[in-house]
Design brief:
Layout lengths: L12 H23 L1 H5 L8 H31 L10
Length: 90
């Protein structure tokens, strides 16, 4: 039994949206290579926090969102099960 093609149109709303996003990205890459990193990231010698601040917010949010439910789960286990369902962290 060989797999059969799914079929359907190639150009859909999703592919148009992806093409628009790729076009915007290509324009930003060209601007970055032509005019330097400062025009894209808003970094300069006076205000050098542009790129780092955005990265810090994204990374800190990801770490916090991962740790918060784990801490709540451990807290709930300690109160509801009186410590019987806890697992060691190490």
């Amino acid at each position: 039994m060989s797999p059969k093609p799914i079929g359907g149109p190639y150009i859909t709303g999703t592919t148009i949206l992806a093409a628009i996003m790729v076009s915007i990205m290509a324009i930003l890459v060209l601007i970055r290579f032509c005019f330097g990193l400062g025009t894209v990231t808003n970094l300069n010698d006076g205000y050098s926090w542009g790129l780092w601040l955005a990265y810090d917010v994204v990374a800190g949010t990801a770490i916090g969102c991962g740790g918060y439910p784990f801490a709540l789960e451990q807290l709930a286990k300690s109160y509801v099960l009186r410590g019987q369902g806890q697992i060691p962290l190490s």
